[in-house]
Specification:
The chain is built from 14 helices and 15 strands. With 512 residues, it is α/β, with parallel strands linked by helices. 29% of the residues lie in helices and 13% in strands. The protein has helices at 18-25, 40-49, 53-56, 72-78, 128-142, 202-205, 231-238, 241-260, 265-298, 331-334, 363-370, 385-389, 464-480, 492-497; strands at residues 28-30, 33-34, 82-87, 100-104, 114-117, 120-123, 150-155, 307-311, 338-342, 351-353, 358-359, 407-411, 423-427, 431-436, 441-446. The protein folds into three domains: 32-161 and 298-393, Alkaline Phosphatase, subunit A (3-Layer(aba) Sandwich); 167-276, no CATH class; 407-510, Arylsulfatase, C-terminal domain (2-Layer Sandwich).
């Protein structure tokens, strides 16, 4: 959330997202919105269905989505809407519920991407974020005389590793030294063991060549990089001559300067943080510009009404704790942007929901409710419209109508590329309890006193009564959402593989 201007995070002074900030200034901004599983494909499935991962069947990357289940586009299609999908899909099956769809054949293609549609595959020249928007605008233009209401879902892929910005943005922020998070060099000793066995460290896991587009230094050996599948290099090889020349030329001055320096480990981490964080912000800039293009085309000129929702599948670490990844229940990856805007919404045009807990499971039922389409009982989320109707100056948590007291989160994948253990947990307004059940390791954070989640209080005597209550609440939420996942502790021999001195070097095939 540090990357969005409206949330007044670490990069707010740069105003990196002016179009999204405009959207937020005219709509409702949720300050406490969270995902229920911080992985891309599960997040997409949840937005489609309003159901948690275990309920919609997409628990981790690679799982195939069951399109026969009720979903937001299918329900709107049945209600008389034209439906369309553009951009990233990543659910392993052909999209259902969409009258028109054009999706990336490979979500790791950022330049000159190949798109898949019901009529076949077509490669388009250009930057993927721009191409996705072009296709979206073309569809809107083609249906301009159609009187049916429409639902359009747009999924950009630009914020994926290795964060390849558009050529026009490669030099953006070159003259800026980005602020570092205070815990960039966190030793993680006051957290539970899982945080020390992950593979998402800027220092150890971001590779200068594969991830950060520098030339191979003398004596270069690949880092334990997550992108050693050459995603960036494949994109560069697919560039046309003009793109390739501009790309290499843009990086040359800084790369040559790096080659002349002899950086110690700490200085190299700082350099890598600047390159990674700037590239991430550059990619968001491309998204923001294209959101502006779409909003301009949606500007009502004939009395028509629009309802717009902007969100993300998950959050991301941008240097906090020295990390760049996601997947955790920690705030940086669990918290997501959520903006609702539209003339069909009740309540004041401009509103900030400061304290009420919203979640990705709420997006589908909220949109259905706003459009007066019945919400299936099987959806785990609930409409956020009552929060929009409350007085902006009221304390939402103490308003007369009760709201959600806690959130449930479950990460189902291990081992995986970032080596984040399976875990589930409960988050209230002020406390967070996490259980890494395969290792039987626990964490408790007091969010009011420790918003950066640096101190694990699970063994602290002063918190034992609250821990007992949270464990009861966690069990109740697991039952409420019918999560039948087996939380058994794995055998000691298995656990030793991932907690020994060579744990970070272990291959994924070491586990069942």
């Amino acid at each position: 959330m540090s990357s969005f201007g409206a949330y007044q995070g670490r990069f707010a002074e740069l105003k990196p997202t002016p179009e999204l900030d405009k959207l937020a200034s005219g709509g409702t901004l949720f300050m406490q919105a969270f995902c229920s599983n911080a992985m891309p494909a599960p997040g997409m499935a949840t937005l489609l269905t309003g159901k948690m991962s275990h309920a919609n069947g997409v628990l981790e990357e690679g799982d195939k989505f069951n399109g026969s289940q009720p979903s937001l586009p299918k329900l709107l299609q049945e209600a008389g809407y034209s439906t369309a999908l553009f951009g990233k899909w990543g659910l392993g099956t052909e999209p259902e519920g969409f009258d028109h769809w054009e999706i990336l054949a490979d979500e790791n293609e950022f330049y000159n991407p190949l798109f898949w549609s019901p009529t076949g595959k077509t490669r388009f020249e250009g930057y993927a974020t721009d191409v996705i928007t072009d296709l979206c605008l073309q569809w809107m233009q083609a249906r301009k005389t159609d009187e049916k209401p429409f639902f359009m879902m747009i999924q950009f892929n630009a914020s994926r590793q290795p964060w390849m910005p558009a050529i026009r943005h490669v030099s953006l922020y070159d003259d800026v030294l980005l602020p570092e998070p205070e815990n960039l060099f966190d030793d993680l000793k006051r957290r539970a063991p899982p945080s020390r066995y992950q593979e998402m460290e800027i220092g150890n896991n971001l590779d200068l060549f594969y991830d950060l587009f520098s030339p191979k230094p003398d004596g270069w050996k690949p880092a334990e990089a997550l992108s050693s599948n050459l995603v960036a290099q494949k994109n560069v090889l697919r560039m046309n001559e003009e793109q390739s020349s501009a790309w290499r030329l843009a990086w040359r001055p800084q790369n040559e300067a790096l080659g002349r320096e002899s950086l110690d480990l700490e200085s190299l981490v700082r350099w890598k943080y600047q390159r990674f964080a700037k590239n991430y912000l550059r990619c968001l800039k491309g998204i923001d510009e294209n959101v502006g293009r779409i909003l301009s085309s949606l500007a009502p000129t004939d009395g028509s009404q629009n309802l717009i929702a902007y969100t993300a599948n998950h959050g991301r670490f941008v240097g906090e704790h020295g990390w760049f990844g996601t997947h955790w229940m920690y705030e940086e990856s669990m918290k997501i942007p959520l903006i609702l805007y539209g003339t069909t919404l009740a309540g004041p045009a401009r509103k900030i929901v400061k304290s009420s807990l919203a979640q990705d499971i709420d997006v589908a039922p909220t949109l259905l409710s706003a459009l007066r389409v019945p919400v299936p009982q099987a959806m785990n989320g609930k409409s956020l419209l009552p929060l929009l109707e409350r007085n902006a100056s009221s304390d939402e948590q103490n308003a007369s109508a009760p709201w959600r007291s806690a959130l449930y989160f479950h990460h189902h994948s291990f081992p995986e590329e970032q080596m984040v253990p399976r875990h589930y947990g409960v988050r209230t307004a002020s406390l967070k309890l996490i259980h890494y059940y395969q290792f039987d390791e626990w964490e408790l954070f007091d969010l009011a006193k420790d918003p950066e989640e640096s101190l694990n209080l699970y063994e602290n005597e002063a918190y034992q009564k609250r821990i007992s209550g949270l464990r009861t609440q966690l069990s109740a939420l697991k039952n409420q959402y019918s999560d039948g996942t087996d939380p058994s502790v794995m055998p000691e021999e298995w656990r030793r593989i991932f907690r020994g001195p060579d744990a970070r070097k272990n291959d994924q095939e070491n586990a069942p």
